[in-house]
Amino acid sequence: AEAHRYAVFGHPIAHSLSPEIHGSFAAQLGIHLSYETIDAAPGDFAAAVRRFFADGGLGANVTLPHKEAAFALASEHSEAAARVGAANTLTPLVGGKLHAHNTDGSGFVRDITERHSLDLRGHDALLLGAGGAAKAVAWALLDAGVQTLTIVNRTPERADQLADAIGDPARCHTRYWDGLDGECFDLVVNATSIGVTGGSFDLPMSILQDHSTCYDLCYGAAAASFKGWATAAGARYFRDGLGMLVEQAADAFERWHGTRPDTDPVYNALRQRF
Ligand code: NDP
């Protein structure tokens, strides 16, 4: 019988780890599936998604630059997707309709609280960035019980828009990137693409305390620049986004297959290479 079809859409997408991650989960659970990469330029994305599901596709992950477009294609949205206005997981509904979900926030929190055993409750967190991933992480941090969330972004208006959308001024506020002198954080999360696009983390080193954790959504070479800043600032705990990548995939996998895979073997195997 033909394998059940899954895919990840992106542009570019060739180096995506998602086929390997979903393939490993499936092998672990004895599930037979195919999981392909589909490179779609922005103008072709909607048609490519429709074709995939019309041909019997059972689930699609979506990555840069299509997460907002994926959200717009769906007629039903989970709360996690609706809050962010972006989706990384599409599931077919009856009648050719699509359901949109977003597992970036849940994957981030699961990695940090379960893999790295960090209890976020009562933390003062600083979030760098206000793009799609930052939005998901902001909501997830507040759900996980941080005491305060401070958002800074190169384009300050986008940080303000995110804080306004969250609408919890007692806990969540913005600062200017160069307005952090005198502040201290338990957790500093890099959700910018500085590690990919280039740029510097000119933040006061005094924002870190001895116990503070620095977390970069990026992994591999792209995590080098934030790690460089964190190391220079004396951070004792640095985590990269490889665990988040595996956990967001596991949350999508669970939605499609109804079973949660053990993420540790996949994470450990990838860790050897990144
Ligand atoms: P977006 O393009 O939506 O957002 C990019 C963010 O980075 C914006 O806040 C932007 O600021 C900021 N930025 C970009 N360049 C610079 C610069 N030179 N100086 C300062 N700020 C800059 O990207 P995403 O939110 O989708 O992704 C962000 C990062 O997170 C990516 O590197 C991605 O790979 C990673 N990621 C990792 C995941 C994982 O599972 N590990 C999941 C999702 C994302 P501005 O608003 O001013 O443009």
Helices and strands, with pairings:
Elements (H helix, E strand, L loop, with lengths): L3 E7 L7 H12 L3 E7 L5 H10 L4 E4 L4 H7 L2 E2 L1 H6 L4 E4 L5 E4 L2 H12 L8 E5 L3 H12 L4 E5 L3 H11 L5 E3 L10 E6 L3 H4 L10 E9 L7 H9 L4 E3 L2 H16 L6 H8 L3
Bound molecules: NADPH dihydro-nicotinamide-adenine-dinucleotide phosphate.
NADPH dihydro-nicotinamide-adenine-dinucleotide phosphate binds next to helix 6, helix 8 and helix 10.
Q: How would you explain this protein's 3D organization?
A:
NADP(+) binds at residues 79, 129-133, 153-158, 217, 241. Homodimer. Helices cover 39% and strands 22% of the residues. The strands form 2 sheets. The protein has a 6-stranded mixed sheet with strand order 2-1-3-5-6-4, sandwiched between helices. The protein has 2 domains: 4-102, 3-Layer(aba) Sandwich (Rossmann fold), CATH 3.40.50.10860; 105-243, NAD(P)-binding Rossmann-like Domain (Rossmann fold), CATH 3.40.50. The mean pLDDT is 97. It has helices at 18-29, 45-54, 67-73, 79-84, 104-115, 132-143, 156-166, 194-197, 224-232, 242-257, 264-271, and strands at residues 4-10, 33-39, 59-62, 76-77, 89-92, 98-101, 124-128, 148-152, 172-174, 185-190, 208-216, 237-239. The radius of gyration is 19 Å and the shape is globular. Helix 1 (18-29) crosses helix 10 and helix 5 (104-115) packs across helix 10. Bound molecules: NADPH dihydro-nicotinamide-adenine-dinucleotide phosphate.
Which keywords apply here?
single chain, 274 residues, alpha/beta, Rossmann fold, 2 domains, six-stranded mixed sheet, six-stranded parallel sheet, SDH_C, shikimate 3-dehydrogenase (NADP+) activity, NAD(P)-bd_dom_sf, oxidoreductase
